[in-house]
Amino acid sequence: MIVTAPVHFELENEAAGNLIIKTTDVSKENARIKVEAKVINSSRSNTTARIEVEIFDPSSNSIKTLSKNVNLKASETRELIFEHQIKNPVLWSVDAPNLYQLEARILNGSKILDTYSSRFGLRWFEVDTERGFILNGEPIKLIGANRHQDFKGLGNALPNSLHRKDYEMMKEMGSNVIRTAHYPQDPEVYKICDELGLLVWTEVPVINDVTDTDAYHDISLKMQREQILQFYNHPSIVMWGIMNEIFIRLVFNNQITEEEKVEKIRTSVELAEKLEKETKRLDPQRLSVMALHENELYNESGIADITDVIGWNLYFGWYSPGLESFGEFLDEQHRRYPNRPLFISEYGPGADVRLQTDTPLPWDYSEAYQLKLHRSYINQVLERDFVFGMTAWNFADFGSSFRQDAAPYINQKGLVNIDRSKKDIYYYYQARLLEEPMVYISGEHYQTRYPEDENEKVKIIIFTNQDKVSLQTREQEFPSEVVDGMAEFVISLPEGKHRLTAIAGDTFHNREIEVKFRKNLLENIGKQPVTINVGAHVNYTDPLTGETWISDHEYKTGGFGFVGGEVYQRDKNKFQGTASDIQGTENDPLFQTMRKGIEAYRFDVPKGDYRVTLLFADPEFNASEENIYNLSDAQKQEISGLRSFDVRINGTLFSRDLNLARDYGRIRAVEKSYRVKAADKGIQVELPENAGRSLLSGIKLEKE
Between β-strands 458-464 and 468-472, what pairing exists: parallel, antiparallel or unpaired? Predict the structure, then answer.
């Protein structure tokens, strides 16, 4: 509740009481300021008041006070305009976010009836297909991230301190732009961006689909008016977003008729034109923008030509194949539409810090693949001046109710985790964007390496913005040139713990890692169990127990590994395993990957007592729960989704007719442990099939 004097600045409007400060005709020599205010006399009698507008420079020095005396009739609302020109203005920029201050007052004699305060900045900008984005006459490439304000344990309702922390982290990463996808954020956010020097693309939540009703169109226009009028004074805002991926539901809707499709396109284009017209009516100075997903319909419908600039949400190497296809797509668009400024509004793969590998693949959710894709995208954008900027999806992991990835119901494309702990990719952006010297040894969550033996080398990756870097161990020093903000070292390290030091110029960074040879894991099984992420090329570390389930490999005499079978993939084009919420576990990635049709898993261990723990999950939603007793082989073949197998260890039957869906449920984690004695040939776990294909997700071997 806001209590005012009878004479006050108007509050009950779409601007929510904001006085509009227009900064037109800004140059290095001059800046024209126009202040628009509305004053209300809500009393029943006429009155006289004086309205003052005082302007302070970025050093808090008062430079001008403008004033007007007004006679207000009872219940009258009066619009007032104040104008002033500043000579040699102190400009606002991403490197020097200088802010002027405006204070407005309503006085009756010496009595102050109402006050209003706002900061503003003086800058000008434009976008050019040849030179890119130009701020205060200087071209800059815009690189940053999208941001949802979702935070672990809190959801979207955050205190201002956490808003500030996010944007400070983005600035410290080297960002100069952010996109508040897909909704206007807390007013404090824009103040923070003003102060830090972060350019902003802010947008209204007109997302994925348009309803062909007056009510939907009207509320969309109302949201845009409210956004523009409430946040108008913030110099950080350079783009007003009107839509995001507005045809994506249409494209993936197999039930829609051709006639319905035509109408959906018509109403979407009509709304886009309305939003564009309203945006330019209220603010012709800033850029209008919409974000599109990879589909030709945006060009065919003409909707991509409505706003000043467009942003493409592109996921080549993730949802679409081929990292190189990203640049090819951009070149083809620029060839067809040479006068259209392009922005990459979304890009990035999911990454789970629990998953690590040196051989990354799409959809393995490893930090290594996240690095591979982001490195490629940054390089391809920097090579193309007609692409004026890019914002990664997303600054931080966030809740997403329908996603079932490595961490179900979390979108893991963040550069940091949902609790804001940093992934390696955050430091890589620092290496590409910061001017202040930095160096960082990657692997915060990859501190134990498992080469086969002393003949297999270990990969160490260092991020730095310097030209050269050296990696030091206790015994050796390895120099390297830096390419694309990183240097890769492939070195031999003996088994044990190692302290690594990266030195680049006057900066350095230390990290401790441990090397464990796979060939020796069985010899040390009395001290530590052997845990294997069957069917996966990534290591998985359980954050609670600290156990690392190492990547799978084929059996060789004297060691351990799988015999026969193949890696399970539900979607051969995308998924490493199954992207499902595995019930009954928090270690979803361990159960999402598996080997099917496996003949055996062998361990060449000495005689003794052991415990074997097998991990299973039936990944099929249509898995059959049928009982195979009294069924012929022909009858079994007729039952879709039927899977039954036995568990035999060293020839002894431990589990008969194991039907995971029937006995435990579909998409559910199952752990079964058996005490066994190792024979002369060690331990051999076999999974003979009764119907369908056998599956194994993980195996743990412990010495009793």
Answer: unpaired
Q: Do 393 and 180 touch, CB atoms closer than 8 A?
A: no
> What's the CATH code of the domain at 275?
3.20.20.80
User: The tokens of 598 are what?
Assistant: 């496996």
Per-residue pLDDT tens digits for 458-467: 999 999 999 9
Residues 556 and 467 in one domain: no
Is this model's pTM higher than 0.85 or not? Answer: yes
Say yes or no: 208 and 294 in one domain.
yes
Provide the edge-to-edge strand list for the sheet that holds 477-481. 448-449, 507-515, 496-504, 468-472, 477-481
Cα Dmax for the chain? 106
Give the amino acid at 164: R
Residues 6+ apart with CB under 8 A from 640: 622, 624
For residue 471, the domain's CATH number is 2.60.40.10
Helix axes 424-433, 160-173, angle to 10 degrees: 60
Determine, yes or no, domain membership for 66: yes
Given a cut of 80, whether residue 557 has pLDDT beyond it is: yes
Q: How much is the pLDDT for 1?
A: 86
Element (H, E) at 424: helix 424-433
Helix (H) or strand (E) holding 52: strand 47-56
**3-state SS record for 524-575:** CCCCCCEEEECCCCCEEECCCCCCEEEECCECCCCCEEEECCEECCCCCCCC
